[in-house]
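Q: Please design a sequence for this.
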């Protein structure tokens, strides 16, 4: 019995060491082909989705990964850029090479607004977690420096834009996890292709019901700790565990929830859930006259 306990303890320690030393920095780029654009849109539009970078001062491996990403037409960042307020300048600089060729959009998450604090890991398993008071961060500095560098802040806004001939109705929502999102701005006003950018996928069901075509979210970290055959243990939001990350069909809409690139500085590990960035290669929807359908 003692030997078995020792073996289990050693195995657990090895998994934690692997999650801290290896997997949390084992970045990857995933790509999906998504035939979703209207027939009068561009032939292809590449969108880079980044989320939950949780940058700290330094963070050299993450900076090198971002610098090596292929240039996309549009880059979307769905919040929690910071793991500490001192890293504002670091993350703005690290994101320079990842900017979109035609547009760069962002919303923030709670870790950008408030200084992160240590948390009991078991609290993530509670169905109704209470939000604790926290010191304010440097969100204003982050927004100012990103916008000065060419990024567009979409927070709680609805606007019309055009990208490479594609007319878009573009929605941005603040962090629903702390109930800062404002759905009063969300109702559709046009028949344009609808895109919605949000931090937490908690806003996704309402947004999909309003008729947006493509949704971007983060926040979940893909569960961060997953087990073989079980998957994510928690999602840290209202979404079920099986919908913790990836492409998700929500009626006629498609939601992409990113696994993100970082972790909280107080939970610096991942297991069976590698950090990632995503390229969505958007192409036109098939039509009735498409030879591929005959």
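A: Design:
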């Amino acid at each position: 019995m003692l030997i078995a306990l020792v073996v289990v303890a050693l195995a657990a320690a090895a998994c934690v060491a692997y999650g801290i030393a290896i997997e949390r920095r084992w970045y990857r780029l995933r790509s999906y082909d998504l035939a979703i654009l209207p027939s009068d849109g561009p032939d292809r539009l590449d969108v880079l989705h980044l989320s939950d970078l949780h940058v700290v001062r330094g963070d050299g491996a993450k900076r090198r990964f971002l610098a090596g990403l292929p240039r996309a037409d549009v880059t979307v960042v769905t919040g929690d850029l910071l793991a500490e307020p001192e890293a504002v300048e670091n993350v703005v600089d690290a994101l320079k090479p990842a900017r979109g060729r035609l547009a760069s959009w962002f919303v923030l998450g709670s870790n950008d607004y408030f200084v992160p604090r240590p948390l009991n890991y078991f609290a993530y398993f509670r169905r109704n977690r209470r939000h604790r008071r926290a010191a304010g961060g440097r969100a204003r500095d982050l927004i100012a420096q990103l916008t000065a560098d060419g990024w567009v802040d979409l927070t709680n806004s609805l606007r019309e834009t055009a990208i490479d001939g594609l007319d878009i109705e573009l929605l941005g929502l603040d962090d629903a996890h702390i109930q800062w999102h404002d759905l009063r701005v969300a109702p559709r006003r046009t028949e344009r292709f609808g895109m919605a950018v949000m931090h937490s996928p908690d806003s996704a069901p309402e947004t999909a019901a309003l008729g947006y075509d493509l949704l971007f979210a983060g926040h979940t970290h893909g569960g961060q700790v997953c087990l073989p055959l079980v998957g994510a243990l928690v999602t840290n939001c209202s979404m079920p565990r099986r919908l913790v990350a990836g492409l998700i069909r929500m009626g006629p809409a498609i939601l992409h929830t990113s696994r993100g690139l970082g972790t909280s500085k107080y939970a610096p590990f991942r297991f069976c859930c590698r950090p990632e960035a995503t390229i969505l290669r958007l192409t036109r929807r098939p039509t009735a006259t498409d030879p591929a359908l005959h």
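Q: Thanks. Anything notable?
A: The radius of gyration is 19 Å. Helices lie at 2-21, 60-67, 88-95, 110-113, 139-148, 204-209.
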